[in-house]
């Protein structure tokens, strides 16, 4: 289950079907930054939502516009920052944890993939401190998710730590409220 896009380029990117996306863009290169009618997502946003690393690399290498926003004023970086483990991932990790720590290794693999995805997007000209309709930046979202491995990547790219969202919270306020000590320490060191 997942999103269904009205634009075939967005759907191919979301599904991780690089061959289909290549054919679509070869036939009509103007669809590289096409916006879906319902969400306003571009193929790059769709690929970031789903965590399709190879598709994201392909789109960025082909000069997809990383500055574009959708109807929620989110960029592709917002979706990388919001990514969570799926229910299937959680179930697999839980079931496999007692079996030779396979669940732990699966969780590490998922975390490394998230880091790689974040690094690819940050290597582009994306606005690191772009604000969505809730006033949140990517740093707000990684703090909400307790992604202590992604916080340093954003800070290294000069993510602003003093931006308040519509609830009046900075990323540090969120980490403090949720008692994420490791993230609190990282954010305090940069302030």
From TrEMBL:
The stretches annotated as ANK repeats are 39-71, 134-166
Alphabetized InterPro entries for the sequence:
Ankyrin_rpt, Ankyrin_rpt-contain_sf, ANR22
Keywords assigned by UniProt? ANK repeat, Membrane, Transmembrane, Transmembrane helix
Q: Per its UniProt record, what SMART domains does this chain match?
A: ANK
Q: What residues form the membrane-spanning segments?
A: 87-108
Q: Is-annotated flag, keyword Transmembrane? A: yes
Report the PANTHER family cross-referenced here: ANKYRIN REPEAT DOMAIN-CONTAINING PROTEIN 22
Query: Which protein are we looking at?
Result: Ankyrin repeat domain 22
């Amino acid at each position: 289950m997942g999103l269904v896009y009205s634009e075939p380029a967005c759907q191919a990117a979301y599904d991780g079907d690089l061959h289909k996306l290549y054919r679509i863009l070869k036939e009509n290169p103007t669809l590289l930054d096409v916006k879906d009618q319902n969400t306003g997502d571009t193929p790059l946003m769709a690929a970031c939502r789903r965590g399709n690393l190879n598709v994201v690399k392909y789109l960025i290498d082909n000069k997809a516009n990383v500055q574009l926003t959708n109807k929620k004023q989110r960029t592709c970086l917002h979706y990388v920052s919001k990514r969570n483990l799926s229910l299937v991932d959680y179930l697999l990790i839980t079931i496999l944890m007692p079996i030779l720590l396979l669940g732990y290794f699966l969780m590490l693999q998922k975390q490394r993939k998230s880091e790689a995805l974040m690094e690819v997007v940050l290597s582009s000209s994306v606005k690191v401190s772009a604000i969505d309709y809730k006033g949140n930046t990517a740093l707000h979202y990684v703090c909400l998710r307790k992604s202590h491995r992604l916080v340093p990547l954003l800070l290294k790219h000069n993510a602003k730590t003093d931006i308040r969202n519509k609830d009046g919270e900075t990323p540090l306020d969120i980490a403090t409220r949720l008692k994420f000590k490791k993230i609190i320490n990282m954010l305090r060191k940069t302030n």
